[in-house]
Specification:
Layout: E1 9-13, H1 20-33, E2 37-40, H2 45-51, E3 58-63, H3 72-85, E4 89-93, H4 96-100, H5 104-118, E5 123-127, H6 135-147, E6 152-154, H7 166-176, E7 181-185, H8 191-200, E8 204-207, H9 210-219
Parallel strand pairs: 1-2, 1-8, 2-3, 3-4, 4-5, 5-6, 6-7, 7-8
Length: 220
């Protein structure tokens, strides 16, 4: 792998029942393994930002999560608040219903407004929830994400019927080219899973199993 494996991983804890103790454990693990980021719900951003200040671990949070069906204004507000609290990566959920209704202009503007709200201060990753889309819709979503100026396209929230598939990563990468990142998330629990996604074109892995993946990598 051309890049250190840990730097592919967004160490993720998005469970509703996450406590401060669980978040602190996530932070310590992220420091230990030097993961790319911790990915947490918005209420934990400030705490994570304070704890990770002197490290190279970024703070990532979610916007319009997990359904993508909040208004654009709400997504923009969430984004601005997250930036204020110290987030440097925003994983927003695309408006899936609008994509399915072929309201492409709305979908693109929704993403663009979040991108503009960051004013270049944070990476924007767009979750398209591949499990709910046809192949044709994945292609259309990939085009819209790229055209809207996002930094990454991401497969899944981890809260839908299934997560990332190698075939989806390959398809997304074929549409967005090399200009933007592709994040595989949802159901990636082993080193073999992570390697398969990276081989297919993923440049970031969202996983709650980051520690066990790294332990497996160390034993490999």
């Amino acid at each position: 792998m051309s890049m250190k494996l840990a730097k592919y991983i967004d160490h993720t804890l998005l469970k509703a029942e996450a406590t401060v103790h669980m978040i602190d454990e996530l932070i310590e693990e992220a420091k230990q393994y030097s993961f790319a980021s911790v990915c947490v719900n918005p209420c934990w951003v400030k705490h994570c930002s304070e704890q990770l200040q002197a490290t190279d671990v970024a703070v990532c949070t979610v916007v319009g999560f997990p359904l993508g069906a909040t208004t654009t204004a709400t997504k923009v507000f969430e984004t601005k608040q997250a930036l204020k609290d110290g987030a440097t990566e925003i994983d927003m959920v695309m408006n899936i219903g609008s994509l399915k209704a072929r309201n492409n202009e709305y979908v693109q503007q929704d993403i663009k407004d979040v991108v503009n709200a960051t004013k270049g201060k944070a990476l924007v990753k767009v979750i398209i929830e591949t499990a709910l889309l046809t192949e044709k819709e994945i292609i259309e979503a990939s085009r819209l994400v790229k055209q809207a100026g996002a930094d990454f396209i991401k497969t899944s929230t981890g809260f839908s019927s299934s997560g990332a598939r190698v075939s989806d990563i390959q398809l997304m990468r074929s549409i967005v080219g090399e200009d933007i990142g592709v994040k595989a998330s949802g159901g990636i629990r082993s080193l073999a899973d992570a390697r398969a996604m990276i081989k297919a074109g993923a440049t970031r892995i969202g996983a709650s199993a980051g520690v066990s993946i790294m332990k497996e990598y160390g034993d490999d």
